[in-house]
Design brief:
The chain has helices at residues 5-8, 18-22, 32-44, 67-74, 89-98, 111-118, 122-139, 163-175, 192-206, 222-231, 259-268, 277-282, 284-290, 299-303, and strands at 13-16, 49-54, 81-85, 102-108, 144-150, 180-184, 210-214, 236-239. By secondary structure, it is of the alpha/beta class. It starts with a helix and ends in an 11-residue tail after the last helix.
């Protein structure tokens, strides 16, 4: 669905999750008009996929009360794949009605986190994937369905998460109808050796259905873990502008990988992202205007681009 010319040459897909993951993790609620300006700026920078909202009850996440309006606006931006998080069938129905191009479902490998996050066991979430896949097949077969295995590398509530269980759950999600299954370091426990091992197993089991790496920078290893995943063949990476976000149901889970730093890493390696770094850094403006006083992170925006830096051709 990502049809903009600049993205056809991209070797990696950077999936921006700030408008969903970032905004639902901060206390303040960004006004809708500011959200739309921010999403427009991200799109103008060349991002081809943006997770713009989650369809959950407004009483639980008032930051997402305008999800349908945000999705409808984003679908008017040419060449953009508009993604929405849906925890259950009701959320999926609302996201499909709003016109989302891609649905992503959180399926936690940690039983404790799953019950805290979505009030269901991992097994019940696999059945929810199956129900949403059937709904999608019947109403909007062109919409893609992704499952993200959260807490795949460890959990602040449970501690260690068994790697065999992570892979078993990923395979079950694919069998239930998810077209992509990614792995998420929800709480920032992962290290590069672990990332290599798990993504190698995931790709061995699922092949082309092995999906995105969603890394957090909680302990400073976000970029190192993304590079480890890339070297195992992963080509889709979630990131958040300014490093905004975490998980409200996972204590201590701060800091998504900073989009600006991730794009700089790949572009400086000669790996095309299709993203204009200067325009991407400029997209911090609407974010900061919409959330005044909220800290934003990123080494590249603070240091600036190196002298003579030449990005890959867009």
């Amino acid at each position: 669905m990502t049809s903009v010319d600049s993205h056809q040459q991209a070797a990696v897909l950077i999936s921006e999750v700030g408008p969903r993951d970032g905004l639902q993790s901060v206390d303040a609620t960004m006004p809708t008009a500011d959200k739309l300006r921010w999403i427009d700026a991200l799109h103008a920078a060349g991002l081809g996929e943006i997770e713009v909202a989650s369809f959950v009850p407004a009483r639980l996440l008032p930051q997402m009360a305008d999800a349908a309006e945000v999705v409808r606006h984003a679908t008017m931006l040419p060449g953009l794949t508009v993604m929405a998080l849906v925890p259950n069938r009701r959320g999926a129905e609302a996201a499909l009605a709003a016109g989302a191009h891609k649905l992503t479902m959180p399926v936690s490998a940690s039983r404790a986190h799953s019950l805290a996050n979505v009030r269901r066991t991992p097994e019940e979430m696999v059945e929810e994937v199956r129900a949403i896949a059937a709904l999608r097949d019947g109403h909007a077969p062109e919409v893609r369905l992704e499952a993200g295995i959260s807490t795949a590398f460890g959990c602040t509530l449970q501690g260690r998460v068994d790697e065999d269980e992570v892979i078993r759950l990923a395979v079950q999600c694919a069998e239930a109808g998810a077209q992509e299954v990614g792995l998420s370091d929800t709480v920032g426990y992962a290290n590069p050796a672990q990332v290599r091992r798990l993504f190698r197993r995931l790709r061995s089991e699922l092949g082309e259905r092995a999906g995105a790496a969603h890394m957090h920078n909680t302990r400073g290893l976000g970029l190192a873990n993304c590079l480890a995943a890339f070297e195992e063949g992963v080509t889709t990476f979630d990131a958040s502008l300014g490093g905004l976000g975490g998980c409200p149901y996972a204590p201590g889970a701060s800091g998504n990988v900073v989009t600006e730093d991730l794009v700089f890493m790949f572009e400086s390696m000669g790996v095309p992202t299709g993203i204009d770094l200067e325009a991407l850094i400029a997209a911090r403006g609407p974010l900061m205007q919409g959330l005044p006083g909220e800290p934003v992170y990123g080494m590249t925006p603070e240091a600036g681009l190196p002298k003579g830096f030449a990005p890959t051709a867009h």
